[in-house]
Protein: Diadenylate cyclase
Amino acid sequence: MKIGFLDIEWFDVLDVLLLAFLLYQIYFLVKGTIASRIFLGYLLVYLLYLVAKAIGLELLTTLLGYFISVGALALIIIFQQEIRRFLLIIGKSTNIANSRFVMRWFRQPSATEPTTPLKPIIDACKSMSSEFTGGLIVIAKNDDLEKFIQSGDRLDALISKRLLLSIAGQYSPLRDGAVIISEDRIRAARCILPISENDEILTSTGFRHRAAIGISEVTDAASIAISEETGRISLAIDGELYPNISSGELEEKLQQYLMELNKVRKREGGKDTPVE
Structure:
C-alpha cells in the first residue's frame, strides 16, 4: 500500500501500533512527574526529526539526529528512577522472580529466615500518634536498602517499642530522618530518603510523607509516616500513600505486605516465624 511518497506495509502499521502502545505505557508511568514534561519535549523533537527526514530536509535531519543520539544517553540518566520503577513493575507482574530456581541462585544465603515482628512497630506508631511525635519508619522487603542505611547511623538492634520511641523522642539526636528495619532488626536511624517528585501529590503534603512515598517508589519497601502536627498515621507502598489510617488498618496492610515475602520463603522450604 502506497500513500503519496510513503510505502506502507501491514508490518509497518503493526510496528506503529506497538510503538504507540509502548509510548503510552511510558507516559502512564511518568505521568504526574517532572520527567513527563521532559519526555513529551523529547518526543516532539523526535517527531520533528521523523518529519524532516521524510520530507528530505538534510541539514535539519542531521542536526536533530546529533541531538537525539546524545539525548538518548541523557534520557537514561534523567529517567533512571522511572526505568527502575518500570522494571520493578515487570518483575512484580511475573512469577519468574519468585521462582525457587531464581531465588536459589540470586538470593543471599542466610542461616535463618526471620520475619519482621509487627507488634512493637504498631505499638510504637500508636504511642507516637497519641503523643503527636513525628516519625518515619521504613520496613524492607526484597530490595537491598544498604545505600540508604549508609546515609544514617547504624544501630543493628532488636526491634522494640521503647527503642523506637527513644529514637523518635523530642531530644533524641537520631529523630531526624528515617528508621530502617530489615527482618527482625533496626538497621539504622537518621537515614536520608529520596523525596517523591510526583506532581499529583497534594501541596499540603510535608517532606516526611513525600520521603515515605519516595522510598516506596524506588524500592519495594513499605514506609510509615506519623505526622507531628496531626498525629495521623500514613502508610506508603509501591508509590501509593494511604493517609490517616488506624493502627488496626496499618497492621492489616503490613501483614498483607509481609505475607507475600513469607509465601516465597515457604515455597523454598524454609521455616517461618509467625508474624506477630
Observations:
- The domain at 114-267 is CATH 3.40.1700.10 (YojJ-like (1).
- Confidence is low (pLDDT under 50) at residues 95-114, 263-276.
- The two ends are 66 Å apart (CA to CA).
